[in-house]
Each structure stands twice: as structure tokens, then as C-alpha cells.
Amino acid sequence: MSEIIKKYIKGDKVIWMVIFALSLISLLAVYSSTGTLAYKARGGDTFYYFLKHLIFIISGIFIIIIVHNIHYKYYSRLSQILLIITIPLLLITLLFGSSLNQAARWVTIPGIQFSFQTSDFAKLALIMYVARHLSIKQDKVDDFKTTFLPIIIPIIIVCGLIMPANFSTSAILFFTCFILLFIGRIRFRYLFLLILVGILGFALFIGVAYITNYEGRIKTWEKRIERYISGENEEDFQVEQAKIAIVNGGIFGKGPGNSRQRNFLPSPYADFIYAIIIEEYGLIGGIVILFLYLYLIFRAGVIIKKVDRTFPAFLVIGLTLSLVIQAMINMAVAVNLLPVTGQPLPLVSMGGTSVLFTCIALGIILSVSRVIQEQEIQEKLKTESPRNQKTDDNEKESQNNN
Which sign does the torsion angle of CA 106, 176, 348, 355 carry? Predict the structure, then answer.
């Protein structure tokens, strides 16, 4: 068993531990939080959603194993192809995608009835592309035409296409790319220009939406922000139920499977799963989840410190930031620090393709750490081989003298 683990599970062991810990917590939380849904939709079959989620978790771990065994340099080349695919895919989603709450977020593949959220695909593609372009242009970071424009145009297009249906995802992706540009030593005036273009693009979207009567999502945003600013969250059923769940949890929680608010929260297995975890495992359980995500970004920093190339460094920080920021937003919404956004908790919330794309991102991060480890082993062998050779020569010389 240990030989199989050594053969297939490589890279940063701590990140692997975080992945397995989050996966285990996810299975327990999803099984507990889907009881009411099972009685409403599956005739009381409480194992249906658990088994479905278990399949996605196992599939995700297999994806991580496959992805992290591929050298990260191939993701640099792949990023250009993925970006080319992303833009028409987002356009198809915006025009013909499956809608939920007046937001077209999913594309269904005909024939096999498989649907996925294209923004998850777009996040990976754009972050990989920005990391690649920044690494290639490090000697020309001050050049507006050859460095900044080829980055800002894809960022604006991709984030702009995601924004009408999923503003929070668009904002997270935009902020992640902004941080990457800042780390990549792009000039401050260019960064200010990016922010200005983003604001103008958002204002233009609002204007066009009002002119064309596309006000569904805008009214949703307005209601959420107004409720949050005014403090009238007692009218927001989701937030109220999440508060009750957190209060009921106390310090040690009510125990696994003993949540009451799962019966009242509209989405206890996805957007508000953090509240259910706190209710069942208490403040301690909530802190453990928070610590796991913070430790993930700490380990990313350790990887970046060891890497000797710019592309893997940008890749690791970009992918890790996107996951951790999303997690922080989900937890902040659950404890009423932010308005409701609809962001799932990465690798914990029940979901299909969101789990798989999260696992792809984690696999790429582990790919970088695996290559670093292999390089360290090779360097260690090189430094030890002259010593071993010298020892062998000394032994031969001693034998000859005797």
C-alpha cells in the first residue's frame, strides 16, 4: 500500500492532507445536509446524494493524481488553447445556457445530458494564461503594447462575459488577476487603468441592461446590497436561518447529523454548508475549516519560495488565491459579513463540475510541488555522488596499501 502511495501520490504531502481532510468533512456535511432534499426529491433515499457526491469526490482525487503527474510546463502551452475555447463557450452560455434565478450559468452537452458551469472552466483558463504571459514578458513588464494589452484584453472579455450571470465569480477572477499583475511587477498606472476599465465596463453593462430591459440580475444585486446595508436581514430568510444554525452550534456543536436548520435553509448543502458545519461541529469545526484553507495558501507560499521559475510561481499563487478567496467569501456570507453571493465552499459544498474543476486546480498546484521535489532529489544525489566516489577511492587506496 505504501509503495502505491509513493508511486501515485507525490508533491506536497501537507496539501494532500488538506485535500483528504476537506473531502472527509465534505462527505459528512453533505450527507447530513441533504436529508430534507432526499425526502422531497428522492422519496426518502438519504444515500442517493451522499453516493453521488462520493463519486465526484473519488473522481476528483483521481483527477488530481492524473493532473499532478503531468509536468507543469505543459499547462503553459495548454493555456492558450483553453483561452481560445473559453470565450465562445462563455458566449454560448450567456445566450443559450441553462438558467437559474435569471442567470445563465450552465451549458448542457446534448446527447449525454451532462451540464457544467463554464465560469469554472474560464477561471482555470484565464489564470493559466495570465501566469504564462507574465512569465514570458518579465523582461518587458513596462511595455504597454506587448505586455499589458495582451493581458488586459482577455481579462476584460472573460470577466465581462461571466459578469451578467455570475457577478461574484467575475469579481473574484478579476481580483485574482489583478493580484497576479501586481506580483508580476506591472506598473501602477497600468493597474489603475485596469481598475478604471473594469468600473467603466460594469457601468456600461448596467446602462445596457436598463436600456434593453435586462434587469433581472441587477434587481437581485440591488435587493441583496440594500438589505445588507440597511441591516434589514431579518427579511432575508437564508441569512436568518444561517444565523440560527451558527448560534445553535455553540463551541462544540450539536454533533454529526443533528442539524435542525438543514430543514429550513434553502441550500444547506452548497452555499450555506459552512453554517451547517458550525451547527454540527461548533465553533471548533468552523475554525478547523478556516485553518485548512489558510494553511493551503501558506503551503502555496512554501512552494513558491522553492521554485526557480516565474511561470509555476504565478500559476500556484493564482490558482491558490482563487480557491481561498472563494472559500473566504462563502464563509463570510454564512456568518453575515457579506451579502449573499452564491459561491460554493471549494471541495466541501455538494457539486459536480465545481468539485472536479477545484481538483484540477489543486492537481496543477501539486504538479509544481512534485517537480520541485524531484529536482531537490536529483540535486541531492548529485552532491552525494562525488562524496561516495571519494569514499570508494579512499577504500581502494587503503586496500592497495595493505
Answer: positive
**H or E element in which residue 233 lies:** none
Rg over CA atoms, the chain: 24
Report helix, strand or coil for 327.
helix
Q: Is 40 exposed, middle or buried (0-12, 13-18, 19+ CB in 10 A)?
A: exposed
Q: Check: CB of residue 72 under 8 Å from CB of residue 312.
A: yes
Q: Determine if the pTM surpasses 0.70.
A: yes
Contact 270, 350 (CB under 8 A): yes
Report the sign of the C-alpha dihedral through residues 178, 179, 183, 187, in that order. positive
What is the sign of the dihedral through the CA atoms of 37, 38, 39 and 42? positive
Q: What pLDDT digit, counting tens, does each position of 361-400 carry?
A: 999 999 999 999 888 888 888 887 666 555 555 555 555 5
In this structure, the dihedral spanned by the alpha carbons of residues 63, 64, 70 and 74, taken in order and rounded to 10 degrees, is: 80
248-259 pLDDT per residue, tens: 888 988 988 888
pLDDT tens per residue across span 327-345: 999 999 988 888 888 789 9
Tell me the C-alpha to C-alpha distance, in Å, between residue 135 and each of 220, 286, 303. 39, 37, 17
Give the CA diameter of the chain.
99
- What one-character-per-residue DSSP string does 115-137 give? EEEHHHHHHHHHHHHHHHHHHHT
- Rounded distance, CA 235 to CA 226, Å? 11
